[in-house]
Amino acid sequence: MSEYYILKKYWIALLHHKLCMTENNENFKVKVSTEIGRLRKLLIHSPDSGLGKVVPSKAQDWLFEDIVHLDTIRKDEYDYYVKLLMYFLDPAKIKGKLAEIDSDTSGRKFFKPDHPGFHGSLAVIEIQNLLSDILKDPIIRKKLAASVCAIEGCTYKLQLQLIETEPAELAKIFISGSMADDLMIFAPIPNLIFTRDVGITINSHILLNKPAKKARSRETLLMRYIFFNHPLFAAYTGNILEIPDAAQHFLRPGEEDEHRTTLEGGDVMMVSDNHVLIGCSERTSAYGANEAIKLLFDNNVVNKVTVVKIPNKRDFMHIDTVFTQVKRNVWTLLRSISGNQTSGPAEPIYYLIEPDHKDVTEIIQFSKNREKPVSFDSIEALLNDISKNELGSAEETQFIYSGNGAFPYDAREQWTDSCNLLAIKEGVVLGYDRNDKTIEAFKSNGFNVVHVKDLIQDLESGKASAEEITDTLILMPSAELSRARGGFHCMSLPLLRDEL
Ligand SMILES: NC(=O)NCCC[C@H](N)C(=O)O
After folding, report:
1. Which domains are assigned to the chain?
2. Which atom of ligand 1 is least distant from the CA of 314?
3. Is residue 24's pLDDT more than 70?
4. pLDDT (tens digit per residue) in 344-369
5. Nearest to 304 by CA among 368, 384, 252, 233
6. Is 70 exceeded by the pLDDT of residue 250?
């Protein structure tokens, strides 16, 4: 066959493939305008073999606090997250099948993205499969292999070998960093489980991140290709927002972090349909926030953006590590970053030394139609304003503090993500089972507390239902997951939530 015919055959097949996928996904909707409306669709990534390759000498560079035990993090921890999400978002996949899914003979196939028995939910969507889908297109495979090899410094021969690799296998390699025979060809990207950080849905737009840490740059590249090329997002390609580097950035001498334009998803919160919070933190620079605000205003995505500047520390890498929303009038947060200087008499030292500017929380609100920004004295004041004036709460705003607001439990439990909760519906949140004092604080604020293992049994038996459950903190096993330094807010990229 002549080259012309081979090429023609290939294009027809490709077009057909694209059309089939697009037709199936015509009704796929992307819309998030709240942090707490009933969750309907999200992107996740289950711990892949790359997590089992983190070595102690690299753990810090790869942004893990420790090495993790792969089997435990999967079977005893993350799988419960997937099961719980299924009961709430895609019950037909799990209800009545739990015993089979959990049986020893099933070999966890329900949870393995590359297994024919994988759940394949279009509500609880696994990133690895989206990646494998787009890699079926030979042009994308070629481009992405070249890009990955460029950022990872691979040889040209390896690049050619990757291009020839079967798509599902290649997706695994791009994520885990290792070939099928276990040979490591580049570093893993163990932080891909924290899908929140790679992109954020803001109304019907998707804001892509610009990571501060090199360890997270391959994640960004893969997500960029997925959002721009996967047929699921075909109707939204015009709504993808990318943060450019400011021209001055290239001209500045040195490599100071504060002049970089960086933004990670954990620093972005969609609190009401017209209002986004952006954190300035260890990961999101003031320049990153500046570019994001311009994009959001210029594209008429929202009219209001509040920048919450928190201390630049590893402990508080994103704003969602220090506060998240539970109900329209309930928030959980770390008291020490509140910024509130008026809650009690300040000690003399407060007047004797200048506070270190980097340790001060500042809150600055920008409105599209207002020339000058306004500021808030404390995080509580801002959150109260959102609860009352934007979400229409008639009740008093409640703040549930990490560690019940008591030193040293506040800091200890914030470190293990007491403030990083994921609302699966208003008032029903997922958090780690290890944060005892915070759990007590939830109880004393009128919340039920239930362990995920018990809840799953009740959801399966019909004793509990996703529709009826209210005001509940669901405790998730956390011994291994918390070593990766993120909670369930970080482990979720919501694509669709009901409006409040
Ligand atoms: N939104 C979040 O706070 N994500 C947690 C990211 C944890 C990850 N090990 C990191 O350091 O980037």
Report:
1. 28-250+264-497 (3.75.10.10)
2. 11
3. no
4. 566 787 778 776 666 789 999 999 98
5. 368
6. no
Which amino acid does the sequence have at 142?
A: K
Q: Please state, in angstroms and rounded to a whole number, the distance separating the CA atoms of residues 260 and 286.
A: 9
State the maximum Cα–Cα separation within the chain, in Å, rounded to a whole number: 87
Bridge partners of residue 323, in order along the sequence: 333
CA of 127 from ligand 1 middle (Å) equals 17
Residue 85 dihedral angles phi and psi, to the nearest 5°: -60, -40
Distance 266 CA to ligand 1 centre (A): 7
Residues with CB under 6 A from ligand 1: 63-64, 191, 194, 196-197, 266, 317-318, 320-321, 484-486, 490
The number of the ligand 1 atom at minimal distance from the alpha carbon of 283 is 12
Encode pLDDT of 416-470 as tens digits.
Answer: 999 999 999 999 999 999 999 999 999 999 999 999 999 999 999 999 999 999 9
Mutate to test the pocket of ligand 1, among 317, 421, 489, 491 (most ligand atoms within 8 A of CB): 317
The whole-chain average pLDDT of the chain stands at: 92
- Cα 246 from Cα 248, distance rounded (Å): 5
Query: Comparing C-alpha atoms, which of 369, 364, 360, 356 is closest to residue 290?
Result: 364
Ligand 1 atom, smallest distance to 266 CA? 1
